[in-house]
UniProtKB/TrEMBL annotation:
Mode of membrane association: Multi-pass membrane protein
The UniProt record lists the keyword Membrane: yes
Entry's localization field: Membrane
Domain of life of the native organism: Bacteria
TM ranges: 7-27, 59-77, 89-106, 118-135, 141-162, 174-197, 209-227
Family indicated by similarity: Belongs to the TMEM86 family.
GO cellular-component term (any): membrane
Stretches of the chain forming a coiled coil according to its record: none
Descriptive protein name: YhhN-like protein
Length: 238
């Protein structure tokens, strides 16, 4: 990890802590929501500024951009226009697009054999269990979007974990990618409960802190990937 990445890691872990503090103090009121959206916007600006050598890193720009669009609906408009029709649906569409870009970024040396099936299976099982628990609360386009997002999320998780054995990225970076994929998968499962399950819709401090702690960690790790100078085993690869 180079010096700029160490600075990125320290900065955004500190900002994550600040988000958790503001969430504790202000719950879902404007100060906490504006801080969250501001930090996420800063992450997009950071990924734009970082020097990028590989196509994977350039594709991450598009993934970050899509998440900012989602955060606009999930976070910013929650402060300014919380009753906007289909606000959460538009946010989910943005995350579907973001995960598709993550798949494109990390699906190097593509194969789909026994290892990939075994890697995918835990994601599918977990998603299937939680879908069965939430299906009765999701209707219409929200249900369709949730299923599509879940399928894409499972494949994204598998793709990111598969970097550990596909031999394209360095081992240390593959671990960061894999951890990010698992953390983001877990974060979105909690988000799904927050959106659909009546018991989880109200503000719960522990729930919000889990969502934002894991969400920020996952994308901070991807910021580090975006700034790596020796991302692949052959550093001349683009």
């Amino acid at each position: 990890m180079n010096n700029s990445n160490r600075m990125v890691l320290a900065t955004y872990l500190s900002l994550t802590l600040l988000i958790l503090i503001f969430t504790t103090l202000y719950a879902l009121e404007s100060p906490a929501l504006y801080l969250k959206f501001g930090v996420r916007t800063a992450m997009l600006l950071t990924v734009l500024i970082l020097r990028k050598k590989f196509w994977t890193q350039r594709l991450l720009i598009l993934a970050f951009l899509c998440t900012i669009l989602s955060d606009y609906f999930f976070v910013f408009l929650r402060a300014t226009s919380p009753d906007l029709p289909n606000r959460e649906l538009f946010g989910m569409v943005g995350f579907i697009a973001a995960y598709i870009f993550l798949i494109a970024a990390f699906q190097r040396r593509f194969s789909f054999g026994k290892r990939e099936v075994l890697t995918l299976l835990p994601f599918v099982i977990v998603f299937g269990i939680f879908l069965s628990l939430l299906a009765q609360y999701a209707v219409g386009f929200m249900f369709v979007a949730a299923v599509i997002l879940g399928i894409v999320l499972c494949y994204t998780g598998m793709t990111m974990v598969s970097t550990l054995y596909r031999g394209y990225f360095t081992k240390s970076d593959a671990w960061l990618i894999a951890i990010s994929g698992c953390v983001l998968f877990f974060s979105d499962i909690v988000v799904a409960f927050s959106i659909f399950h009546p018991a989880f819709k109200p503000f719960l401090l522990w729930k919000e802190n889990i969502i934002w702690g894991t969400y920020m960690l996952g994308w901070t790790l991807l910021l580090i990937i975006a700034g790596e100078e020796k991302l692949t085993l052959n550093s001349s690869r683009l």
